[in-house]
Amino acid sequence: MVGGAAAADAVARARRMPSLRVGLHLTLSDDWPVLPAKALPDLVVKTGAAAGRLRGDLATLGLAIATRASVRRQVEAEIRAQFEAYQATGLALDHVNAHRHYHLHPTILSAILAIGADFGARALRTPIEPLADLRRVEPTPRPPVALLTAPWAAAMRRRVRARGWLAADRVFGLAWSGHMTEPRLAGLIAALPPGVTEIYTHPATTAGFVGAAEGYAYGDELAALLSPRCRAAVFKNAAAVGGYADINPA
Fold first, then answer.
1. Is 118 strand, coil or helix?
2. Which of 33, 52, 164, 177 could lock onto 37 through a cystine, CB 3.0 to 4.6 A?
């Protein structure tokens, strides 16, 4: 999130870990934009303490993006500005995704594919999460959001791969977002099917930061990533761990 308050610190840490695969988390909602608010009149909150911050009403904004050319131009400008800000860090761009999976919006996806190509982007998260794989770990009801996103995610993966970009065969993190605990993460790793799998989490040492999602178990997700049990599951499964650049190195 190149417009976030901790972006500079994150970049500094990434530079100290050159083997870490880092990507751009495009943000078109619920955070501060890279461009000045006056350049994005339809994308930002107008009044109050959050004035200038990107809007969070995704459905209403999504309709405006689909139907108004002026709003689309603002979206494209902010997306390009975020790619430029990432490029300015000097970090290699391993992959791209979007906050709250907003790149499921076909118009936003089109902009990412078109603009991202100018910056060497070659991999995009496509949130296809097979329920059968989750249920091998624990009984899990189908999340309502999955019913809405599944067809869009499938269409997204077809478009991404047709453009020659990389997309994982499956992505885990949607159903258990904010609650990817050690038993869940270790269970997923132990039962990974063949192919490319992306697992995303939201680790943090505390939940008391600006923008924290209510109810997220950030500390539990951090503990899962540091867990010897999860590490052992990786070795037992002989899984290759890395980023998208490790799938098909340039």
1. coil
2. 52
